[in-house]
TrEMBL record:
Keywords associated with the record: Amino-acid biosynthesis, Branched-chain amino acid biosynthesis, Oxidoreductase
Any one GO MF annotation of this record: ketol-acid reductoisomerase activity
Domain of life (superkingdom): Bacteria
Name of a matching Pfam family: KARI_C
Cofactor(s) in the UniProt record: Mg(2+)
PROSITE patterns, per the entry: KARI_C
Protein name: Acetohydroxy-acid isomeroreductase
UniProt lineage: Bacteria, Pseudomonadati, Thermodesulfobacteriota, Desulfuromonadia, Desulfuromonadales
Keyword flag Cell division: no
GO process terms (BP): isoleucine biosynthetic process; L-valine biosynthetic process
Family: Belongs to the ketol-acid reductoisomerase family.
KARI C-terminal knotted domain: residues covered: 1-54
Length: 61
């Protein structure tokens, strides 16, 4: 936590983020794919499929 705070304060985080963006987001793309393929996402999809009230338009405001 302290390390990332230090990177934010000294500008390292912003510099790395800009470079990542300029390079076409290769690291972020890999991490997003890894997250999407994680077992918790598969289980979440199955659980949401069992929650029929999530598709009920009357419950939305």
């Amino acid at each position: 936590m302290r390390e990332i705070l230090h990177e934010i304060q000294d500008g390292t985080f912003a510099r790395d983020f800009i470079l990542e963006n300029q390079a076409g987001l290769p690291v972020i793309t890999v991490r997003r794919r890894q997250g999407a393929e994680h077992l918790v996402e598969e289980i979440g999809d199955r659980l949401r499929g069992m929650m029929n009230w999530l598709d009920d338009d009357t419950s939305k405001k």
